[in-house]
Amino acid sequence: MSREEAKKTLKDLGAKITHQIKKGKNPEIEFPLRNLSNIIYDKKSKTLKLGNKTGSRSFFNVSHSKKFLQTVEVASVITDKLLDSGKHSSLRDVFYMVKKTIPGTKVNLVDEQTESDKAIEDLEVITGLSREQLHVNANKNGSVAGKVVIEDKGDIIDWSKLGSGGWAIPSNVEEIKFKKVDAAYILYMEKAAVWERLNEDKFWLKQNAIIIASQGQTTRGIRRLLQRLYEEHNLPIYVLCDGDIYGAYIYSVIKYGSIALAHASERLTIPGVRYLGITTDDIEKYDLKKHFIKLDEKDYARIKQVANYDWFKDNKEWQRQFKMMKDNKAKVEIQALSARGISFISEEYLPKKIKNKEFID
Amino acid sequence: MSREEAKKTLKDLGAKITHQIKKGKNPEIEFPLRNLSNIIYDKKSKTLKLGNKTGSRSFFNVSHSKKFLQTVEVASVITDKLLDSGKHSSLRDVFYMVKKTIPGTKVNLVDEQTESDKAIEDLEVITGLSREQLHVNANKNGSVAGKVVIEDKGDIIDWSKLGSGGWAIPSNVEEIKFKKVDAAYILYMEKAAVWERLNEDKFWLKQNAIIIASQGQTTRGIRRLLQRLYEEHNLPIYVLCDGDIYGAYIYSVIKYGSIALAHASERLTIPGVRYLGITTDDIEKYDLKKHFIKLDEKDYARIKQVANYDWFKDNKEWQRQFKMMKDNKAKVEIQALSARGISFISEEYLPKKIKNKEFID
Known about the structure:
The first copy, chain A, is α/β, with parallel strands linked by helices. Chain A is 42% helix and 17% strand.
C-alpha cells in the first residue's frame, strides 16, 4: 500500500468522525479489542490473532473521551507530520509531538508515552494499517550479509560487499526493493558475536546463505525483513539461538507472533520458519555437557510458562525439548561450540545440521 | 602494529617464562596494577590512566598460581587460535576456548567468564597490546553515514550510499582503511532513533558531516572509529546526548576514559571531543520545560557521584550544568525537540548550535 493510500485511509476515518459530529451524533470509533480475552491462537494459520470481539470509543463518554481525543490527535499528527511529508518517526517522537495541553484546560492530552503508544496500536487495528505504514518506526538494530542487492532511498546496496560490518538494518524496511537475491536459505541468529564469526568465515558465500543477526530481541524491522524475503523470494529461514527457554521463545515469536503484537501477526509472523539449534540433542551429540550453565528458579518458571502456551502445548518435539532442559537442569549457549574449535560452528555444526535437515518445527 | 608483531610480542612473553623455568626459577610475570588505588586522572593528558604501581604473578604462590595459569593459557589460545589464523573472537568465545580441566586434576582452569576476561585485560597491560590487537572483539553495535569511502576486507564501502540503514559498525575497526574522507565534523549520538531522523533528512549531506550512533553504551568499536577519524583526519567530534547525568557520563567516557578501561585510555580516549547538547541552557532557549522528566533518587545520587569525579570536579561549566539539573529537578531527552517540529533538530537546533560553537568542554 502506498503512502497516498495510507493517507486516504486516515482521512476517511477523519471524515467519518466529522460526519457524525455534523449529524449531531456522538462521534464514535469501532475496533477489534486487543485485551487478553480477545487474543487467540489460530491453529489453522498457526498465528496469534485477535478474535471477533469489538469495542468502541465515543467522545461523550467520561471513560472514553480522553482516549478518543488521543486517537484522533495521533491520527492527525501521523497524517499531517509524517505521511504528508513522507518522513518517519519513532514512538518516542510521536509522544512528544502529541504531548500538549488540551486548549481551554490545564489537562495534558498525554502524560506518558504508553498513552500515545496505545493510541498508535489502536490506529493500527482501526485502519488495518501497520505501524510501518503509518511511518512510525520501531527500534533499529541488527546487521545482514549475503549475495543480495537491494535498492533503498535511491542507493543500490550490495550486501556481499560490506566488509566486516554488513548493512545496518533500518527500523523500517517497507520501501526497500530486492534487485537480486541469490541464496538458498536465511540464517537468523540472536547474537551479533556469532554473526561476526560467520561473516569473518564468509559463511554466507560458502553456504550461499543470507546471515542476519540482532542483538537480543528481534526488532520489527528484522521480522519484516525476514518475512519479505520469505514471502517474496521463497527462502527458508532457520533460527539459531542459545539452547534455553529464551531461545525457544525468540523462535516462537518469529513463527507464531506475540501477545503484545497479536493485532499485527499477519504482517510479522512467518509460519514456515524452522528452529535449527542449539537443541538439547546437540548437547549429547557435540559433547557440550561440560559447558552447561545451571538453570535458576527464573528459568524453571519460564519453561513452565512457555511449555503451556497454546502454540507449544500440543507440539511433541518441543515438549520433549522442554523436558530435557529440566532433566539436564541446564542450558547451553551457542558460543559453547567454540570449545570445539573457533570455526567449528561455520565449518561443521551448521553445514551438517542444515544438510541433514535437523530442524525442529 | 601488524598481526605478526603482536604474535611476536606474545611469543616473547612465552619465551621469557620458559627461560625462567629452564633456569630453575619461579616463573613470574610483572605488570601495572589495575585496581582503583592505581587508577589516576592525569590532568596533563586529560585521561584516566594507570599509575606507577606494579604487581607480579608467580607460579609457585598459592594465591597466584591459578591466575598465572589462566594468563598463560589465554595468551596461548590467542596466539595459536586467533593471531595465527587471523581470526577474531568475542570474550565469550575465548572463555569457552580456555574452559578446560587442568590435566591431572579435577579443577577447571576457569569457571566464570570474569576470570578469562581479567586474564585478557592482564594480557593487555603486560604486553601493551589492545584487546583489538589481540583479536578479541567487544560488542558490535551502531551505524554510520557520511561522505566517506573505506576499504575493509577487500570491499570498497561508500558510507554515503547505504540507504536508510547505513554501514553497521563492526566490533573491531583496526583494519579498515579510509580511502576518502569528506566531512567538516563528526556528530556522535547516543540514540539510533535520532540517527534515523538525521539520516532521513540527509543531514550528513547537507551539513557535510559524518553521523554515528550507538544504542545505549558506546562500544569499543565505535570509540576506536571516532578516535581514528579524529586523529587520522583531524575531524572535530560533537556529542549529542539526552540532557541528563547519563548523557554527561557517556560524553566523559569518550573524552577522558573510564575506570574499567583505564589501562586502555591511550587507545580509546579523545581529549578534543566536545559536548553539543542537550544542555540545561537549551531547555530555556528552546522552551523544553513542558517536556521535563522528573529526577528520581537514583538520578540525584548519580549527579552527586559524577560531579565529584576528578575530571568534572574543577570544570566550572559542567558544575553549573549539574547544579541546574538539580535546580530544575528534571532531565530532558533529545527527542523532546520533536515537539518543535519533526525536523527541527536537523534544520534548526543542530546547524545553529554548531555554527555558533555552543559547546561545553
